[in-house]
Amino acid sequence: MPDIDIAFSDAELEFLEQIREQHGLPSIEEVALWLLKTEVREGVKRATGSKRIIRAVEEVSDL
After folding, report:
1. Helix, strand, or coil here: 10?
2. 45 falls in which pLDDT band (50, 70, 90)?
3. Pairwise CA distance, residues 32 & 9, whole Å
4. How far, in Å, CA of 29 to CA of 33, rounded?
5. What number is the average pLDDT over the span 17-34?
6. What is the mean pLDDT of the chain?
7. In sequence order, which residues have a C-beta less than 8 Å from that of residue 13 and are 6 or more positions away?
8. Is the torsion defined by CA of 46, 20, 29, 13 positive or negative?
9. Crossing angle (nearest 10°) for helices 28-48 and 10-23
10. Which range has highest mean pLDDT (17-26, 27-36, 40-49, 51-60)?
11. How many CA atoms lie within 13 A of 14 on its CB side?
């Protein structure tokens, strides 16, 4: 997965640090990933009306 650089303000970093401490995450990068996954899950729930597991689909060569 490619790395991207995101600039945060001091207030945003403070907020992310609070989330990091609350959830016991090791880094700000992990906080960003956790927030992204949480938002995707919530979006899927809103779109489908239920919780669904998102899984990577592997290519099938038997067809």
Report:
1. helix
2. confident
3. 14
4. 6
5. 93
6. 83
7. 28
8. positive
9. 80
10. 17-26
11. 3
Asked if residue 47 lies in contact with residue 53, where contact means CB atoms within 8 angstroms, the answer is no
- pTM score: 0.64
Q: What letter does residue 24 receive in the DSSP assignment?
A: T
Q: State the Cα–Cα distance between residues 55 and 41, nearest whole angstrom.
A: 12
Separation in Å, CA 37 to CA 2, 10, 13, 30: 17, 23, 19, 10
Single-letter amino acid code for the residue at 23: H
Residue 16 has what pLDDT? 93
The amino acid at 48: T
